Amino acid sequence: MTRILTVVTNVAHYDDPSHPTGLWLSELTHAWHVFDEAGFSQTLVSPAGGAVPLEPRSLKFPNYDKTAKAWHADPAKMELLQSTVAPDAVDSADYDAIFFTGGHAVMYDFPDSSGLQRISREIFERGGVVSSVCHGYCGLLNTTLSDGSYLIADRDMTGFSWREEALAGVDKDVPYNAEQVTKDRGAKYKKALVPFVPYVVVDGNLVTGQNPASARKTAQKVVELL
Length: 226
What we know:
CATH class: Alpha Beta
Order of helices and strands: EHEHHEHHEEHHEEEH
Strand content: 5-15%
Strand order of the largest sheet: 2-1-3-4-8-7
Shape: globular
Number of strands: 8
Largest sheet: 6 strands, mixed
Helix content: 25-40%
Number of helices: 8
Number of domains: 1
Distance between the termini: 11 Å
Radius of gyration: 16 Å
CATH superfamily: Class I glutamine amidotransferase (GATase) domain
């Protein structure tokens, strides 16, 4: 059976504790549905293991769609978000792909997780698929390959754009400009001409989606590659 390791956050707020954030639920549920339909086995991992907070804005219209509502109303599914595994408990050889979900929270705990970096490197170097949607690409910013080069260097990729940060009204709140960091790492960053529309970039076994609307299409590309 094809197995997917899906990465979610443990962070519940921005630098300001009164400003909540967390997992953008539909980015998980859209992809989960696609992988489930393909017959794939799925496991949730987070940088610290354990509970995953939800981004409040992802639970409001229009972000709170059919798949997100169904997950939120399912006690068994919600329990999965209370008991995620930690990277140290993961053998990358058990997985064919890794998929990083988003939400602004991931900007804090994804980039410097050595465990997630290890898993991504090992999956990527043996030809498995490394993928992300929206802010999930923050999990790839500091990942290096065995030769010391950045995984995203010289590769076409995308992720939540700085323009989208500004339009979302959080450009003053986020800890860094992730789009610029990808360019600093040598990636060939691409984005759609119009903000917030589905947009996916595939470069070999690296698959990245730009924003929440891209989650389903990103997962479909991963399925095609697998």
